[in-house]
Amino acid sequence: MSETSTKPYLLRALYEWCTDNGYTPYIVVVVDARTRVPAEFVKNGEIVLNISFEATGNLKIDNDFIHFKARFGGVAREIEVPVSNVSAIYARENGQGMAFEVQRDEEGQRKKKPRSEPPKTPARKISPLLSAVPPASAEPAKSPDDDNQPDPPGKGGRPRLTRIK
After folding, report:
1. How far is CA 30 from CA 26, 54, 110, 119, in A?
2. DSSP state of 19
3. For residues 153 and 41, what is the distance between their CA atoms, to the nearest angstrom?
4. What residue ranges define each of the domains in the chain, with the CATH number in brackets?
5. pLDDT band at residue 3, thresholds of 50, 70 and 90?
6. What mean pLDDT comes out for the span 25-47?
7. 66: exposed, middle or buried (C-beta count within 10 Å: 0-12, 13-18, 19+)?
8. Count of CB atoms within 10 A of residue 141's CB?
9. Per-residue confidence band for 145, with pLDDT thresholds at 50, 70 and 90
10. What angle do CA 72, 76, 77 make, to 5 degrees?
11. pLDDT tens digits for range 65-95
12. Contacts of 55 (CB under 8 A, 6+ apart)
């Protein structure tokens, strides 16, 4: 019997932490064929979703999928996100959260491991890291990956999630 991933448990725990502390939980999702989200809001193969109680209806975070209803541009949509495609969860107000690695192949699609083949090398367990994001007033150093990130908010704006590789 295979071991259950810790990722959905961590997602549920951080969601609960955000709501208990009055923060707005956001998830960053890598979009592929299994992800059901509004395509017009996908940017660079990713979408950021507000999963707060106020923004969603019937939110359910299962071990395999996150399901909920949400409005985009005034239109109600059914959202279905594989837990394996969630690359981060964080609080909008302070940027605190956790990032996860989502594997992709050469064509940009999420890798699927064949179930019939055992892994050739033993899998190395990588635990997700929780790190604080610098305050919005601090100017982060520019790196080549910054071109793929949205523009930073102005002073007093919303914090943004910074991925550390």
Report:
1. 13, 23, 8, 24
2. H
3. 19
4. 7-104+126-148 (2.30.30.220)
5. confident
6. 94
7. buried
8. 5
9. low
10. 85
11. 999 999 998 899 999 999 999 999 999 999 9
12. 24, 70
The torsion angle over the Cα atoms of residues 19, 78, 8 and 88, rounded to 10 degrees, is -70
Distances from the Cα of 42 to the Cα of 10, 48, 77, 112, 147, angstroms: 24, 8, 14, 21, 16
Task: Give residue for tokens 């793929």.
Answer: 148
Q: How confident is the model at residue 104 (pLDDT cuts 50, 70, 90)?
A: low
CA separation for the pair 161, 134 (Å, rounded): 10
On the question of pLDDT at 15 being above 90, the answer is yes
Residue type, 74: G
Phi, psi of 106 (to 5 degrees): -65, -30
